[in-house]
Every structure is written in structure tokens, then in C-alpha cells.
Amino acid sequence: MIGRKVRQSDVSEGIEREATRKDAGRALLARISCLAGLLLGVGGILFALFGASANISAGAVGAALGILGYFLGARRLGAATIAIGVICVFFMAAAATGIIPGVGPFGHGYD
Q1: For residue 15, is pLDDT > 90?
Q2: Range of the domain at 76
Q3: Of 103, 87, 1, nearest to 37 (Cα)?
Q4: pTM of the prediction?
């Protein structure tokens, strides 16, 4: 009877460790996706400011990675990543049309 209780506790500890490992992996994946999204969003804004590109897809992918991170458990970081991604999309669209002073529209031959 004592051996049976020991086995049950070993099994339950193993299940708890597996769940903890799974949660840690999920949290790591959430943070990595959010950080990649932040890099894409901030990088997109910097590319627009320096006149290198007006590709809106960087902000869209950044926002999508923020949504993924939010659903995987990184709530605050995910919300910040989504906000930066959406701001990047609007900023790049404004830069592409010439609305932002000092940043000319891309590909229109204005020097």
C-alpha cells in the first residue's frame, strides 16, 4: 500500500513537471514572437523615416506576431506589439503618400 502511494505521487509529479515545461515553452514562444513583431514594427518605421522603403507588410506581420504572442500568453507584450504593428502600418502608408513632412513619397522621382 505504501509503494502504491509512492508511485501515484511520482506519476503526479511527472505530470506537473510536464505541464510546467509545456507552459514555459509556450511563454518562451510567445515572447519570441512578440519581440520579432516589435523588431519588424520599429524597423519598418525606421526604414520609412530614412526613406529606404514603404513596405506596409512589415507592420502587418509585426501585428500578426503580436496577436500570436497575445494568444500564447504574453498579454502586455502582445498588446504593445499589436499597437506598434498597427502604428507602423499607418505610418508607412502616410510616408508612402507623402503626408509626413521630410519624408517624400517613394518611387515618384522627387529629390
Answers
A1: no
A2: 2-97
A3: 87
A4: 0.77
